[in-house]
Amino acid sequence: MVGLVKGFKGWAITLLLMGLVISGCSTNTAKNAEQTPATESAASRENTSGNETEPATRVVQDEYGDVTIPVQPQRIAGIYVEDYLKALNITPVVQWYNPMWGVQDYLELDVPKFDITGSIEALLQYDPDLIIVDGGADMEKYEMYTKVAPTYRLPESVLQDSNQILKTIADVVGKPDKGEEVAAAFEAKITDAKAKLQETVGDETVAVVRLNVNDDTLALFGVKNRFTGFIYSELGLTPHPLVSKMEEYQEILSEEAIPQLDADHLIIFPSNGEWSSPENKEALKVLDSKLWKSLPAVKNNQVYIMERAHWQSGAITANSMKIDDLLEKMTP
Hints:
Blueprint: H1 2-35, E1 47-49, E2 52-54, E3 57-62, E4 65-70, E5 76-79, H2 82-87, E6 95-97, E7 113-115, E8 130-133, H3 139-146, E9 151-153, H4 162-172, H5 176-200, E10 205-212, E11 217-221, H6 230-233, E12 238-239, H7 241-244, E13 250-253, E14 265-270, H8 290-293, H9 296-299, E15 303-305, H10 308-311, H11 316-330
Helix pairs in contact: 4-5, 5-11
């Protein structure tokens, strides 16, 4: 009997201890549940499905409406906006390429080419998790890009301002602080360059001309031109009257109009290739014509030969390079 009592007491003690342990675990579980938020933002959590982890996403608004994009995209294709990605220290998975114009050489990107004249489906092989496009993508093209990956189309309201484009893209790729940093540095550069150009150029008039090598014509760029308009609006250079009156981004100068281009300073670059490109040799004869040589800027040696690659881009890295060109050519 004594042995049975002792055994019963031993089992009772064991059961009591097990109950205490279970009770303790339940209490800890309840405390942990209290410390965990009941809901989380979709932008701050990762969803799990089986053994796979899906990246967190968020909803942003682009030109065409709401779009769901990764919070931290890793493989970005920026069609026509690679310049801004590089400024944010992001290497895109591809760079846009046109058989007629080539690539944006000034960016020196070592990534595959994406032929924008070909099939958009070619992007699939580069597995982007986000595509960013500018105003060149209408609704039809936009829909085609969205079949490859989530696509953000820049709003029309920012397309004329490189700083606004930069900040918008920085937010979309999850680097708003870096965007603010780059924008601030660019604004400081603008302020410094504007002061220096005012000292040396003052109110003397300026015009930007492109030599169209395919038909040997001269295109005058207006104050609203996305590539060069900032030299007037932000750097404070004075546009020649022909330029300031233009409503179009650019206009072809007839032979009769060339003598009217009596700006104090002329900036010129070719439409394709480089000044030394053999295929441009015929077009260069325009600059040997009597009409061109009769212009005041030509006579006063105030024509500035620029390279096409960054002068035919209105992006922030390109604009920074243009500032360097102008300071080199137009200031002591």
